[in-house]
Amino acid sequence: MLRWLGQGLLGAGLLPTSSWAIPGVDEPPVPGRPRPLVLPRFEETTLGNGLRVIVAPRPGLPLVTMALHLGTGALADPPGQTGLADLTHELRTRGALHRGRALDATDLARRVEALGSGLHSATNWRGSALSLTVATSHLDTAAELLADVIRRPTLPARELARVRERAIDGLKFEQADPSALAGLIARRVAWGRSAYAQPQTRNSLERIHHADVLAQHQRQARPHGASLVFTGDISLPQALLLARRHWGDWRAHGPTPTAPPPQVADPTLPSRVLLDLPGAGQSGVVVLAPMPVGIDDPQRRIAQVAAEVLGGSYSARINQEVRIKRGLSYGASAGLNLYPEGGVLVTSTQTSHRSAAEVEQVMREEILRLAREAPTPTELAARQAGLVGGFARQLDTTAGLASLVIDRVERQRPLNEVGDVVPAVLAVTAQEVQDFAARYWHTAQLRTVIVGDLEAAGTALSRDGAWVGSARQLRLDAATLR
Hints:
This protein has 482 residues and is an alpha+beta fold. The protein has helices at 2-11, 84-92, 105-114, 139-151, 157-176, 178-191, 202-206, 210-220, 236-247, 300-311, 317-325, 356-372, 377-395, 398-410, 421-426, 430-440, 454-457, and strands at 43-46, 52-57, 63-70, 95-98, 101-104, 120-124, 127-135, 227-232, 272-276, 283-291, 332-339, 342-351, 447-452, 467-470. It folds into two domains: 43-247, CATH 3.30.830.10; 272-473, Cytochrome Bc1 Complex, Chain A, domain 1 (2-Layer Sandwich), CATH 3.30.830.10.
């Protein structure tokens, strides 16, 4: 009885609570002071064969990430063979000549795992990278393995078949997922006939033969234009010793590949695309806005903050409206796809078929509202803190730091630009965000892609002026999707 009475008085505000509260238990802990951001310093040199060696020393913790970046990526894929650079790079991790012995995929994986590491491969539009993180005591062995994987891969034909089949299985899964499929179509809506819009398909992967992979490796694997990156507990002299020992006699074979031409957006579809995916559990909704601001444009920091205001976190505007206020989705987000030639704002979510039309309207309205209503001081500070915090977390690990270096290498930007990121983000004002949205994200720029069961969506989802098609007849490798 006494317990009940106490709860009632507390609820009525008649008993003091602060003297009873335990900090960190009954009350949330007070936020700590922001930790100072420790920016790396970069050292670099170039070997006689043209290989660029970059070091970002971080003494203390005995870990080092090594990454080898090759300066040719997916933009160089021949017409009709989208995925060649990706398959070739993945195949490098499936076998190599090591100390005169051919290691298959299992042998190679075991040797890397014995170092307490994993071999990570990634292919982007303008380059490919292989990386691994090891204790400093294993550096020499790891550097030897990484060199063999790049310089002496076996590229076995049987592994090509496995890698290709796995990629095709992934495409099947992706094309059955309404959100993933909407994202693929959104690239086509934004870029049209450009290479940025061209996805890997079953047909393009099946056109890639073993001879194509061998030729691609010869074109891509060359020291000139490649960069060897070390981040962590290592100095430039130590890195140079490893680089010269394992990479110093590396030579190129065949002609130097030509740089891919700049890409130009060439849209071929209407501003609304509706794709019928019968039997889908929900609808994927994407609202996007192409813009001329690219990854090296001075306005990119404003664009990043603006996108963060719209959908960079749980409390951002789009998620507030779609999930928190209306309960139409488990989450809605916004982000930027930035390229040298331009960029695209992409907002996306997944919802029930019958609410797809409402979600589309809400997302469009939130983008347009940013041009009318600048972020409040609290809102702006929170979004900037999110961007700065994400950047700081990336700097906190040797692998994250290596990825930042590779990003600058691939974009041919000065490495010391890393130090400009935080000041540039914090310098963005609310008025700049509003003006940016008004200039680039207005009604005429907005595009919509909805993938789902159109019959279940009902008449609320207007077909007027839209491209309407069926997933059964969809051709992702065609600019018109048919």
